[in-house]
Amino acid sequence: MSASVRTSRFISLVAALALSGAAAAGPPERVVSVNLCTDQLALMLAAPGQLVSVSRLAHDAESSAMAEAARAIPPNGSRAEEVYLLQPDLVLAGTFTDPATVAMLRDLGIRVELFEPARSLADVPANLNRMGRLLGREAQAADMIAAYERDLAALSVDLAPRPRAALYYVNSYTAGDRSLAGAILRAAGFDNVAAETGLDWGGVIPLERLVMLAPDVIIEGRDYPGQARAEDNLNHPALAALKDTRKAGHLTDRDWICGTPQVLEAVRAMRDLRLSLEPAR
Amino acid sequence: MKLAATLCALVAALFLASLLTGWVAANPAAALRALVAGDGTPLSVVMQDIRLPRAILAVMVGASLGLAGAALQGYLRNPLAEPGLIGVSGAAALGAVIAIQTGLALVFPLALPLSALAGAVAAVLLILMLAGPRGGSITLILAGIAISALAGALTSLVLNLSPNPFAAADIVFWMMGSLADRSFQHVWLALPFMALGWALLLSTGRALDALTLGEDAARAMGVDPFRLRVTLVLGTASAVGAATAVAGAIGFVGLVVPHLLRPFVGARPSQLLWASALGGAAMVLAADIAVREVLPERDLKLGVVMALVGAPLFLHLIYRTRREMA
Amino acid sequence: MTLLSLNALTVRRGECPVVDAVSFSVSPGECVGLIGPNGAGKTTLLRAALGLLPHEGLSSLSALPARARAAQAAWMPQSREIAWPVEVETLIALGRIPHLPRGARLRQEDRAAVDAAIARMGLEGFRTRRATELSGGEQARVLIARALAQATPLLIADEPIAGLDPANQIATMQVFRALAEEGRAVIVSLHDLGLAARHCTRLLMMGAGQLVADGPPPEVLTPDNVARVFGVTAFWAETPQGPVFQPLEVTR
User: Fold this and answer.
1) pTM of the predicted model as reported, rounded to 2 decimal places
2) Which of A71, A133, B81, B142 is positioned for an S-S bond with B76, CB 3.0–4.6 A?
3) B41: region left, alpha or beta (phi > 0 left; psi from -120 to 50 alpha)
4) ipTM score here?
């Protein structure tokens, strides 16, 4: 038992020495991303050849706004074994990445940087800034941040009254004001009914409660491929029976989940929805 | 007849209570007015489109499971026979999952109950083949474990193979059952099959009575064993298949209800049929009220409540029949 | 008029006949005892005659449709199965199932038949007892009463008196004999040759699947037949209290 622990310590020490010798100072040369959101941030900012692998999800056009660009880069399954074999000097992961994977990679002497999921529109420049520093691409990051803030200001809607909107996802989940999706909704000129129920970042909203809130608009979550009973709530006849509520259809997942400048597309879509409500009011 | 009146009153009271249970704590009079008004106000939408189908489905599902349990017990002459425990519900869930995941249920909605029915038929036939005409407890339970395990594994496999990221989360629904956010679509989908199942199962009463004396004596009293078997298989499969297709596999109803009611009908299998149908309806209504009272925000699965009530009784029954099993 | 007639009735298990070309017929007024050692084919013969087993040859009963057969003959199997704790009266009333029209409850005539069967088997005090809680002997009497309640011209019972005490054995055989005297017929298989000799009007002796002897008890229970089929010697006497038959020694 203790002998094997010692052996594995020894192996990781050797590995760490070998890798730190290769990395030295300067920007990392072999970056592997194992999380959909770090995939996209890295794709935007990395120098050619710097990013050697992205997570498999990055290739899926429904989930990833940068699937096109990602296809040039080999995918990984986010497991410690295959990531280690890619011999990275920096691994980018999310705080929801399997802790066992992260711990294993760190034990093997690999630098792993964790990104929290974005909870507000202000997280976007923060993410870009941090990614720029990690990859040694600060100048590119600064340009991107300037463009993002300019576009966001142009898109933001400040019209009164603010319609009451509900985000309604699979399994009756909703997002609140302290979530990225909630922030997108607010920026586009809506009030989120989740706030009326005390859900600040999100949670389950029973169908009955949603109906009783009778929001002006219900924006439904993405319709995933294949079938699931968990999606039945999106098609419940009670939603159709609410006569003063507009059902705004499905949102495009890829623009809503990651704290990248892509969220501007979501803000734009919501702003268009907000403006389309205007003549009726 | 006193028992029938009592059970009917109980079902009616629980039905009303179910209509008045939910996240929205509305004044009962206002809620019932909204139920009949149908004026498109949020409260009337809640009453008409969410609570009414839920309560109706609870009655239908409970009656189906109670009735199927009583009929299976009568046929196998074993109080441990129950659609959930012997794997019929699990196999029906597998059938339903296959219909949904292949997309068949989308093109042709009746494929959902039909496929669940096919799964249930396969399981009942397998059980009857393995347990023999007189279902000995040990073969019955072992066959049930095997069929449940196989059906559960295949259900998980199908759901894990689905391209939908939420399909795997459905496993809990299919194994534990829930009536949350079901609609009238589900009522109309299940009703014809359940009605057929009820009619078939209720018609077996006299033959099940005769079987009290054993298969030989029953046959000599004019019971056609082949016809009885076909009626029982189809009746159980239609009722349990349709119930599972819309509400997932809810266990223990068919075990607990006949056991509780048997003393009140003088242990007569024929009388136990209708009594268990009413009792099952009451039980599922009560369980569905309980899951909403305990955790109003979450979709606590019905199977959780049923297993908490049913499993200790199941253990007790095994303990009592251990001599037979030894 | 016959109530049952068999012609060359044969039942095979694989190739081997376990009932081999048995022919006889039973008329009203007969109390027929079916005797033979273990494995002689008594139960198989009775079940085949009722149409409960596939067979070759003819049986007037198995040729009938199920409902008509149930109106013609009542059957009490050897295994005394009572699956549920029903009341004795309810259990006996199960015998009326073949007579009830579709969906009907017990009618006046059905209640009368049940009451008669209860009275005949002396079960008046047991009406509301749970059948599963009775002793083995009591259960046997309840099951006989159930068969009586079916009120058929022919009653076929497979070892109905096994396990009963002497008083109940005699009483039961007297019931069967009385039924015969009323113009019905009874076929009863039994191992107690003494009771068979005293109470049956006719005996059928089976050995190794074949009908070895058929006739009144004194003609069937000859020393030769008894030695050949049962492998025992026996004492036989006609006494003022009726015939007495007692097996004595094993001869092989």
Assistant:
1) 0.88
2) B81
3) beta
4) 0.91
